[in-house]
Design brief:
Number of strands: 3
Strand order of the largest sheet: 1-2-3
CATH topology: Pantoate--beta-alanine Ligase, Chain: A,domain 2
Distance between the termini: 84 Å
Number of domains: 1
Strand content: 15-25%
Structural class: alpha+beta
Helix content: 55-70%
Radius of gyration: 25 Å
CATH class: Alpha Beta
CATH architecture: 2-Layer Sandwich
Shape: rod-shaped
């Protein structure tokens, strides 16, 4: 009789393990998407900082922060902040993935002395 009560218990265990595997897979895919989005925003911040620094140094015509905003937008992000100190640009690029905000800072300009 005890064998009848345990009949099908392996199926319940297998279903539970498959559900746990599915949840872990969805979490891993979400984490990978978040990392990819961060890399995209990081590239946008780098491009924006370079555009601002090149404009500030006179290599490109226009306003440094306007050029930075354009570079960030072309790379799938928006310009958050833009600060200039001579030919050095410090900018942040921002985006969101699934309601999670992503912000990355980048600096471009001539090398520091020292």
């Amino acid at each position: 009789m005890s064998g009848d009560r345990e009949r099908g218990s392996a199926s319940v265990i297998v279903i539970g393990l498959l559900a746990a595997l599915l949840i872990a897979s969805v979490a891993a895919v979400g984490a990978c998407a978040l990392l990819a989005a961060k890399q995209r925003v990081s590239a946008a911040a780098d491009a924006a900082a370079l555009a601002a620094a090149d404009t500030a140094s006179g290599l490109i015509a226009g306003s440094p922060c306007d050029r930075a905003a354009q570079a960030a937008r072309l790379n799938g992000a928006r310009l958050g902040r833009c600060r200039l100190a001579g030919a050095v640009a410090l900018v942040s690029a921002e985006a969101a993935l699934g309601g999670i905000p992503i912000a990355v800072w980048a600096r471009a300009g001539p090398p520091d002395d020292g």
